[in-house]
């Protein structure tokens, strides 16, 4: 049985990893500009024109996510989120209150899957997940591990629902074996 300290360590490691990938400029804070740069890199990976419907949906989703994060996390009002503010907000469960997680994360998940779904079949292949991983800052090997763990029905594709459940695992699960723990690469 895991102790509370071990669970806290797992959550801290997951959040530190996500923070690192979101802090695009490496200044020790997450800002709206970091989210914009993430979107720009994903659009570039998929050679998506910035004004396309999918690009606009992706940018809008990440802007909503940033506003929700800033509103609930930026406790000192400086327009940026420190690692401590980020961790306190997620550990405090702000995303899970009143359906907040689904409202904040599901639109981004749908937009990301729609953009990465280059075949247009409504699901992600291993190659599409690798490309998306590169956009998110993770290696092809890490993307392959994520894909294998999250393809819960074993059909060789990821659906929006499977990716959304992985998001939920990553941010909210205390289970060290939860498939979504691999979402943003090796912890």
Automatic annotation (TrEMBL):
InterPro entries found in the cross-reference section: EF-hand-dom_pair, EF_Hand_1_Ca_BS, EF_hand_dom
Residue ranges of every copy of the EF-hand domain listed in the record: 10-45, 74-96, 138-173
Signal peptide: none
SMART domains: EFh
One of the Pfam families matching this protein, by short name: EF-hand_7
Database matches in PROSITE patterns: EF_HAND_1, EF_HAND_2
Gene Ontology MF term list: calcium ion binding
Gene3D superfamilies: EF-hand
Domain of life according to the entry: Bacteria
Protein name according to UniProt: EF-hand domain-containing protein
């Amino acid at each position: 049985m895991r102790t509370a300290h071990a669970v806290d360590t797992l959550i801290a490691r997951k959040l530190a990893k996500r923070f690192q990938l979101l802090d695009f400029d490496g200044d020790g804070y997450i800002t709206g500009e970091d989210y914009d740069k993430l979107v720009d890199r994903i659009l570039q990976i998929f050679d998506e024109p910035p004004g396309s419907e999918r690009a606009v949906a992706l940018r809008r989703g990440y802007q909503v996510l940033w506003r929700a994060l800033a509103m609930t996390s930026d406790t000192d009002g400086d327009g940026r989120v420190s690692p401590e503010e980020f961790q306190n907000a997620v550990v405090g469960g702000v995303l899970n209150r009143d359906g907040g997680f689904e409202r904040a994360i599901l639109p981004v998940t749908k937009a990301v899957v729609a953009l990465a779904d280059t075949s247009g079949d409504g699901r992600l292949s291993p190659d599409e997940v690798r490309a998306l991983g590169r956009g998110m800052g993770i290696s092809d090997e890490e993307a392959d591990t994520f894909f294998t763990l999250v393809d819960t029905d074993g059909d060789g594709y990821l659906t929006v629902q499977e990716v959304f459940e992985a998001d939920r695992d990553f941010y909210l699960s205390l289970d060290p074996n939860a498939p979504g723990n691999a979402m943003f690469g090796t912890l």
